[in-house]
Each structure stands twice: as structure tokens, then as C-alpha cells.
Amino acid sequence: MAGSVVITRPRAQCDSLAQAVAAAGRTPVLLPLLEIAPLVDQSQLAAVLADLERYALVAFVSPNAIDAAFAHVSHWPRQVALAVLGEGSRAALARHGLTTGNATILGPLDPTRSDSENLLASLDLAALAGKQVLIVRGESGRELMAGGFRAAGASVTVVPAYRRSVPLLTPALGDTLRTLLATPNDWIITSSEALRGLFDLLEQLGGTFVTQMQQQHVVVPHARIAATAQALGLAHVTLTGSGDERLLAALQSKK
After folding, report:
1. pTM for the whole thing?
2. CB burial readout 140-150, b (16+ within 10 A) else e
């Protein structure tokens, strides 16, 4: 029988995938490798969102960005389009009452690639020339999306909506990592930042644990994360494309 399935998403995003893993006959283990926290000062975010009508398009980089933003939004202007990267973000919008039935929601044409590059390639960028675009994201992130919109002639505002960080190495977390690395498991990694943070934690435990992790099987939804995994020396990497159903399919052969 295969080992456990280690789910490393932020805690608030683990439950549905964990339930699906259990329904597929595998044992989920929740190990959030990124902690998501609200900004201490949300005045800039609130001020920008109070003037949504000025934007032709608002792009959200993640479900976390959507949830943080909609704490300040009571009504979405129908004329303002939204852009998202993946199905998780569409689901987040639906939780806040926005669907393709009552809003213009744009996303990558290739659903297996939930990234800024594919989103930019899927949009009519020429139509945004001379218009204002808002990007809602974490405190840090890639500049590629903003650069793409600016290159098309749009005026771009980038506003942080939340903070993310790698958890501290507590005794309890150290014990959990040691236990997981003692046997082969499947690790679902959905963030390069989380993967690098994991290796930082393991280095604090000792080089032996880094070597053990390099022999674990990791399942990733994006080529950029796969490249990070390979650079960190992981020997068994499965690239699935985005979407929980693809992540789950990659685990079936391990059952």
C-alpha cells in the first residue's frame, strides 16, 4: 500500500483536496508550508477597492487575493472585468457571489497552465491600451503580469492584499517532518515558495533530512514548480497541470 499524501497548501485551502484524497482511498496528511495572514494595515487595499469603477480589469493572482479583497467589497461593478489564473480562483469568486452569469471572468485558455504567462497570452491586451488595470496579490510576487499589461499600454496599479510566510520550525513541526520522511509518501506541492521553505526547514533539522526529502515523490501542477523541485535535487517529480482532478489522477497509480 502506498504511503500518505502530504498536502502542503495553506491550511484554509486544504480541506476539499484532503476529502478527495480520502475518497480515493489514500490517507491525507495536512502540512501547510505557507501561512497566510491579513495585512496589519489594510488602508491602501480598502482605498483602492473603494474606487473599482475606474478599472477596466482587476486581476487576482490567487484565491487568497480574492478572499482578502472581498472583505472590502460589497458590490462588484458589472462593467469591471475580472481575470484569474485557475479553477481555485473561480471557485473563490463563486463563494463571493460572482460567476460567469453575472460578471465577466477571464482566465487562461489552457486550463492546465494556471500562470501569468498563459493568462497574458489569452487576453486581448490591445483592448487594454490606455485603460487602467488593477492587480491584487500578496506582499511579494512576480512582476511578469504587471509588465505584460504595461507593455500593452495599460496603466497598472499593484496592491498587496495579504502576507504569506513559511512557518517557524517548532519542535512539533520538526517531529512531524521526521516522521513523514521516515517512510515514502506522495507530497502535493503547489508553490515554489513553499517548496523552498520546506528545504530551509529541513536544512535546520540537518542535511540527512534534506537527502531523505530528495527521494520522496512530489506531485506539482506547474512546470515552474517542477523546475524548482529539480533544482533542489528531488529525484521523483510528477508534473500534472493545474486542477485538483489532475493532482488526484497522478496519485491513482500509487494506490
Report:
1. 0.80
2. ebeeebbebbe
